């Protein structure tokens, strides 16, 4: 067994014992009360899940095992000559609960490199889809095709003992994370670059190799990919992609089945697809207004038009956050350092100066501030990745790090099948009337 796997097992055994004690001594303690409104309105604010990898504070934003994004950018190991954290390090942190050393990250990078082979039938499955297929559909089809490689599913079919679930889930997790950049890059090159594929470079770290296979050799783009893969990786357990992965996994579906399910949620416009919607919205605004950085008045008029058409302003608002998303701020800092004069970036910043007050004035939007998706497209476009329908796939590759680390914990802690109770509106009416 590798030392990282052994370390995970030791950590999981330790927490497993603590959770058993917690359940024995405090199992009947109430965590929350639930209102009728919460049941109808997306279960907002109900504490009903346990996720070890990260925790969201409504005002501060996400912390991964206690570390904020600025702290991660400071403390996680970097590539030689680089300034952004390596996503392998974040995966280690989420899985083990401790900051990795440079050596841990190097080990993980080479383990992922060794496991990255993608069987041909996965490429055949992608090729079987019309070229016009949305990249997120190609992505989930490819992940489903990869499911033939699940060691968890095979071990289960062979009668695996429940004590070993964690071990096979760990193997599936590493294999899947290792393969995703190759799969995603294949989709990109097939759809947008006439099928001229680029072979992996085993000397590069996970994110830089992904950038390389997409066809971007610029050091700035590699740095952006490292940052992008870190900040999109996890957002505690209740978001649609994490929750879906966890839910499907609770039926003992393997990592491929569970992750593909989560990705179908990420593909929705109120979740991960918002990153493509933001750039589409900004580009249409620029075109409609005749180019250049629009004035505050012009942006305000465009926002009001969007709202009057019964649409949301993409990239703004959040189900939990109540302040500017620190993932937006991290990207803003990256842009200030690397591309401060970029026109689209300046439009993103002008939108940031204008939109919050308008949304606030509506009186119903709980969070008028930008989320992670408000900034990412402008950065990607700057480096030449103009095909915005692909952006959610990038989000998905990153999200794998968090939701799959969580899935390892789910199986290690032997979490139960998720099956909350539902009621009908008839039941709710009677309940409300006290009957
Ligand atoms: N533009 C216009 N209206 C909005 C926005 C927005 N950006 N955000 C919220 N509202 C509306 C919302 O539609 C609802 O209206 P109604 O009562 O008429 O149905 C009202 O404000 C209250 O919604 P909230 O309670 O503030 O938000 P909720 O928790 O329901 O939804 C989002 C959160 C993220 C779905 C919502 O803010 C939104 O649709 N934002 C735009 C899409 C987006 O950027 N999604 C990406 C989220 C991050 N991610 O990557 O997943
Ligand atoms: C996420 O990263 O998953 C989004 O911000 C959505 C969420 O947290 O609900």
UniProtKB/TrEMBL annotation:
UniProt pathway annotation: Carbohydrate metabolism; tricarboxylic acid cycle; isocitrate from oxaloacetate: step 1/2
Flavoprotein found in the keyword field: no
Keyword Transferase among record annotations: yes
Gene Ontology molecular function: citrate synthase activity
Key words, A-Z: Acyltransferase, Transferase
EC supergroup of this enzyme: transferase
Gene3D superfamilies in alphabetical order: Citrate Synthase, domain 1, Cytochrome P450-Terp, domain 2
InterPro entries linked to this entry: Citrate_synth-like_lrg_a-sub, Citrate_synth-like_sm_a-sub, Citrate_synthase, Citrate_synthase_AS, Citrate_synthase_euk, Citrate_synthase_sf
Positions of transmembrane segments: none
EC number(s) reported in the record: 2.3.3.16
Top-level taxonomic group: Bacteria
Stretches of the chain forming a coiled coil according to its record: none
Family: Belongs to the citrate synthase family.
PANTHER family, per the entry: CITRATE SYNTHASE (PTHR11739), CITRATE SYNTHASE, MITOCHONDRIAL (PTHR11739:SF8)
Descriptive protein name: citrate synthase (unknown stereospecificity)
Species annotation: Chitinophaga chungangae
Record lineage: Bacteria, Pseudomonadati, Bacteroidota, Chitinophagia, Chitinophagales
